[in-house]
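Lecture notes, unit on protein representations.

Consider one protein chain, 116 amino acids long.
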Amino acid sequence: MSSEVVYSRKMAPETMLKVKLPNSGLKASPHIESRVKTLKGKYGALADALSQSGFGWNEEEMMLVCEKSIFDAWAKSFPHYYALGEIYGKDHGIGTNARNAADDEEDVRRDDASVH
């Protein structure tokens, strides 16, 4: 008899996490919810840009394409663009160990919970 686990779409996310990563301590909330929120935000920004004249999508590179002047005009319509660029732009990590503000916030909450 095989000990292989069969996954199904109906399997609860918490159960899938426990089976796939048994000692990780990951939970659907906030881990999966946080990632979904991030992906929704990124999709929303892309969908907004693509709904504007002058933007296109490069299927091969899977990326937004446009003239720089069009992007600059679109980005300026977001009043916090430059301020957020100052905060996040220079520290944008890449790779498997990259972290973002949501990861840091989660660590603070976990630390606070362990203190109390």
